[in-house]
């Protein structure tokens, strides 16, 4: 099977430029998803693979029950437009006796831009092990953010603190609505005694139905800082740490910015300033605590943080459609197409494209719960690059073809 | 004047899987190994699988497009029946157990060249130890991996000949499962159908003598 890649630049319905080449794109992610489908892996023995946020996710082919069509969204790439939520099923639940429907968990509804055809501004050579675009152009109409600035943040009104030491880990969960490249974070901290070296890391989050969300076991990125140089009193310090490699924050997926003081004790600790919201919580930032292996979260506590980064100018993602199945011996093909509109006010340079697809999981501990993640199954470099002017559309079409 | 031809001596590593595929191509490498009773290899072939057939594209579209049961796709199954198929957790399942010749990797004796419209082996060799039968092992899987310019994973199945005579395998296929669409009957659990996604005809066939085992490896791969 070979795949034609067609790139059309369009203005007011007029084709301005067309390029057509063989795609060189399919990557290991395609085989990860097809393997899970072929082998019919069950939830008790799932397959771990790396999703687009860079975290290891376990997916399977099991769906619960004997009624709800054995729903599973694995391999789906047809997508609604950029911010339109798609309910993608990993399990199902009983609403009441005799009525069954998909269970909506945070991991079951993704914005359309998280799967289907993608475009980006990166230039890294394509590798069969690619897990995401080098630098995705996210959905929207925002202009470029060229200089590092605060993008996700909650930094006013602190009225207390949370104490971090040893096995008492804390973090702030963020659920970004816009994509960006996270390069540094600032946390409002002070110390008690000598807490030693602190680790600040970014991790993914996993949800289930009946208990608190949990941090993934592995860091996407981490950095250390000297806790013994923090102040001991107000006005505290906005301690900034810069990650050794930036994190491409994908909208629609939750992350946690995690703080630990491994050698700290109850008298040699770091204090993270926070606001007690008394129920007036921020809808996309909240607090998570891990003590030994036990997790709790709260919407009432808002840790003081600033997530800093940059972003490329945005393109509006249309729906990703699949159409045109045509089979006539010895050939067969269909098309996968997505439109991207530039309403940013400037020129946007597109230098890569690819395909993200869905992988599903079901909770073993809660048989009615499940959800989905997004995986990169293909990536192509566009050379020379395409400049999409303000008001123009870019249509990207992949056409898989087989010949017997 | 006599022409003199002299071959240059050169030592290098051959990578047949890379040589077989064009950049950007998705396909399968078919590896056939025949082992004697004592485990020694009597024959080994590596060739490029040529023949994804229409059901592969159709099932891929069903999953990629999340085709619903209220607007299903009509796909011909291995029994030559057109079935209405919608997306499900079963699509592409081929984890057949030992002795199951209904799905998974399957073998046959037909020699007709493949066409894109083929829906089944021309003449399947059934599981068993009777005349003209071969014993099907279970389908095993190698984990996906990416190395150099290639990503791939492997399906494997053993076929043991206990029939008492030589069996010639001329065709090999991959049969996968998918769920039929029954929107008015979602209590039903018996609408799983089987579809052929790949069929290859082996030039000259491959003989499996009595007591020997044929191992079929389909390594599905993508080359960038």
Molecular structure report:
The complex is a heterodimer of chains A (404) and B (224). Chain A is mostly beta strands and 404 residues long. Chain A has 1 helix and 28 strands. In chain A, 3% of the residues lie in helices and 54% in strands. Residues 91-105 of chain A have low confidence and may be disordered. In chain B, strands 2-1-10-7-6 form a 5-stranded antiparallel beta sheet. Chain B has one domain. With 224 residues, chain B is mainly beta. In chain B, 7% of the residues lie in helices and 43% in strands. At the A-B interface, helix 1, strand 24, strand 25 and strand 28 of A face helix 2, strand 6, strand 7 and strand 10 of B.
Radius of gyration of chain A (CA) equals: 23 Å
State the helicity of chain A in percent bands. Answer: under 10%
- State the helical fraction of chain B: under 10%
| Mean pLDDT over all positions of chain A | 89
Number-wise, the strands of chain B total: 10
Please state the structural category of chain A.
mainly beta
Distance between the termini of chain B: 48 Å
Give the biggest sheet of chain B. 5 strands, antiparallel
What overall form of chain A do the CA principal axes indicate? globular
How many beta-strand runs of chain A? 28
Segments of chain B where pLDDT lies below 50 for 5+ residues? none
**Tally of discrete structural domains of chain A:** 2
Instruction: Give me the number of helical elements of chain B.
Output: 2
Q: For the report, how would you describe the main beta sheet of chain A?
A: 7 strands, antiparallel
Residue stretches of chain A low in confidence (pLDDT < 50, at least 5 long) are 91-105
Instruction: Report the β-strand fraction of chain A as a percent range.
Output: over 45%
Oligomer: heterodimer
- Largest interface (CB < 8 Å): A-B, 58 and 58 residues
Our Rg estimate of chain B from Cα atoms comes to 20 Å
Tally of individual domains of chain B = 1
């Amino acid at each position: 099977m070979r795949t034609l890649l067609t790139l059309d630049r369009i203005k007011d319905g007029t084709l301005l430029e067309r390029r057509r080449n063989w795609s060189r794109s399919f990557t290991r992610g395609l085989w990860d998803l097809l393997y899970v489908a072929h082998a019919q892996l069950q939830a008790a023995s799932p397959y771990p693979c790396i999703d687009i946020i860079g975290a290891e996710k376990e997916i399977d082919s099991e769906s619960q029950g004997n009624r709800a069509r054995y729903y599973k969204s694995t391999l789906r790439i047809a997508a609604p437009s950029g911010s339109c939520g798609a309910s993608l099923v990993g399990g199902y639940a009983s609403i009441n006796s005799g009525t069954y429907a998909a269970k909506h968990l945070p991991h079951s509804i993704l914005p359309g831009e998280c799967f289907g055809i993608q475009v980006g501004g990166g230039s890294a050579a394509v590798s069969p092990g690619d897990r995401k675009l080098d630098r995705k152009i996210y959905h929207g109409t925002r202009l470029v953010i060229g200089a590092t600035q605060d993008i996700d943040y909650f930094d006013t009104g602190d009225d207390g603190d949370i104490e971090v030491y040893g096995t008492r880990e804390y973090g702030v969960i963020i659920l970004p609505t816009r994509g960006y490249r996270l390069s540094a974070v600032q946390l409002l901290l002070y110390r008690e005694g000598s807490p030693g070296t602190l680790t600040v890391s970014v991790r993914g989050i996993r949800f289930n139905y009946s208990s608190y969300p949990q941090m993934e076991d592995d860091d996407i990125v981490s950095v250390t800082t000297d806790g013994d140089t923090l102040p001991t009193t107000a006005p505290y310090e906005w301690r900034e740490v810069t990650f050794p490699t930036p994190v491409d924050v994908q909208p629609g997926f939750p992350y946690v910015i995690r703080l630990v003081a491994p050698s700290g004790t109850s008298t040699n600790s770091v204090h993270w300033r926070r606001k007690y919201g008394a129920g007036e919580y921020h809808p996309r930032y909240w607090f998570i605590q891990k003590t030994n292996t036990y997790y709790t979260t709260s919407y009432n506590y808002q840790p003081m943080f600033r997530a800093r980064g940059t972003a490329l100018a945005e393109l509006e993602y249309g729906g990703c459609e699949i159409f045109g199945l045509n089979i006539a011996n010895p050939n067969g093909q269909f098309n996968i197409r997505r439109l991207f509109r530039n309403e940013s006010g400037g020129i946007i340079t597109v230098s890569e494209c690819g395909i993200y697809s869905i992988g599903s999981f079901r909770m073993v501990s809660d048989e009615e719960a499940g959800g989905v993640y997004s995986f990169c199954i293909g990536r192509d470099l566009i050379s020379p690059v395409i400049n999409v002017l303000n008001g123009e559309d870019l249509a990207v079409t992949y056409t898989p073809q087989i010949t017997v | 004047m006599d022409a003199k031809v002299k071959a240059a001596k050169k030592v290098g590593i051959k990578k047949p899987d890379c040589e077989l595929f064009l950049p950007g191509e998705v396909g399968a490498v078919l590896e056939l190994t025949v082992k004697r009773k004592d485990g020694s290899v009597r024959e080994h072939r590596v060739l490029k699988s040529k023949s994804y057939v229409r059901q592969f594209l159709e099932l891929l579209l069903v999953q990629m497009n999340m085709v619903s049961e209220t607007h299903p796709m009509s796909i011909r199954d291995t029994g030559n029946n057109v079935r209405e198929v919608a997306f499900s957790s079963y699509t592409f399942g081929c984890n057949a157990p030992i002795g199951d010749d209904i799905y998974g990797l399957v073998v046959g004796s037909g020699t007709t060249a493949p066409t894109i419209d083929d829906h089944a082996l021309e003449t399947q060799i059934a599981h068993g130890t009777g005349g003209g039968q071969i014993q099907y092992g279970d389908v095993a899987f190698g984990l996906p991996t990416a190395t150099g310019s290639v990503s791939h994973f492997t399906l494997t199945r053993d076929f043991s000949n206990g029939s008492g005579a030589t069996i010639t395998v001329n065709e090999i296929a991959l049969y996968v499962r998918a769920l039929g669409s029954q929107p008015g009957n979602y209590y039903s659990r018996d609408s799983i159908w089987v579809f052929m996604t790949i069929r290859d005809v082996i030039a000259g066939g491959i003989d499996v003598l009595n007591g020997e085992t044929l191992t079929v490896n389909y390594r599905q791969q993508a080359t960038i």
